[in-house]
What we know:
One of its GO terms (molecular function) is cystathionine gamma-lyase activity. Its EC number is 4.4.1.1. It contains 11 helices and 12 strands. 36% of the residues lie in helices and 14% in strands. The strands form 2 sheets. It has a 7-stranded mixed sheet with strand order 1-7-6-5-4-2-3, sandwiched between helices. Strands 8-9-12-11-10 form a 5-stranded mixed sheet, covered by helices on one side. The model has no long low-confidence stretch (mean pLDDT 96). It has 2 domains: 7-243, Aspartate Aminotransferase, domain 2 (3-Layer(aba) Sandwich); 246-367, Aspartate Aminotransferase, domain 1 (Alpha-Beta Complex). The longest helix has 19 residues, at 245-263. The chain is an alpha/beta fold.
Amino acid sequence: MADNLSPISRLLHRRGESLQKGDPVALPIVASTTFHLPGDPQASHVYGRYGNPTVEEVEAEIGLLEGAEAVLFPSGMAAIAALFYAHLKPGDRVLVHADGYYNARALLEAYFAPLGIDIATCPTAEMAEANLTGVKLVLAETPSNPGLEVCDLAKLARNAKDAGALLAVDNTTATPLCQRPLNLGADFTIMADTKAMAGHSDILAGHVASRDPALMQPVKTWRRLGGAICSPFDAYLLHRGLATLELRVARANANALAVANALSGMEGVTGLRYPGLATDPAHGVARKQMSGYGPIVSFCLPSRELAERFIETHPLLTPATSFGGVHSAAECRARWGDKVPGGFIRMACGIEPVADLTGATIRTLSALGLRSA
């Protein structure tokens, strides 16, 4: 296929390039855990834990988006765990975001600190300036979830290389369509494909991607030995989601920017963050490394009670955790492990018409007594 085509076009037509007359156009779900294997056990497929044709097709599709080899896992956290287990050993030091997805830190503290791995944390906005002396692995997340802080990835990658550290970037919020960490010098990207990549809130999946085969081999070996392989059916649903990824991301990003602009003019709304706003503290860095700014808007209302009422009475918000689905959702993140004020809301925009979502947001806030400034 022509190299001048976009990754999405190449993904959509990848299967068609190899079809023979009479082959199914849709990707088949190969549910078998066992494969015909007489005599010498060397074969394209041996056992379901070693690999699966459906899963491998989806890995190739993700690889087109990443411009790298991708390995699929049954969740984003399984992907993070695989990276840690594959590349950390007792005595190593890891630097992780202090304000990104908290379960990554919880995993390190619960299972890796007891193994003798030294864990350091750093705010996302300061990671590019962090002292990486003695650090084996850096895990950054930008934009961070839920606070939407941004890290200068190119600068961080240069510093990591100078220090001899590996750099992994959780790119879940942005997706490869809006940010390409590997192009900026990262060694790995990690994603919870549960979110926008699948896009319909109906599967768990995740992946690790890298352009260095030597770095990927331990990850693949750990998956095979640890058994953390994605099911063929979930891989198929992820495949279906990838076909509409560009359309969904474009609408969700447009919704987020419109909502952020609307919120910026409301009295009582504080702490508004969206990297796509020209007034956002992270916008200068974000616009250098992002082509779109993601579906999440974060902001604070005066109290936890008011925030809960906003979510409950908004006609187009599903009160739920997670993001990247077709429906808009929101929650008070204080109910989890995030260090945020009680009135802090993470609003994840879906693919509703922009005017509908923006109008409903303004009307709901107005009904709660908040007015345009």
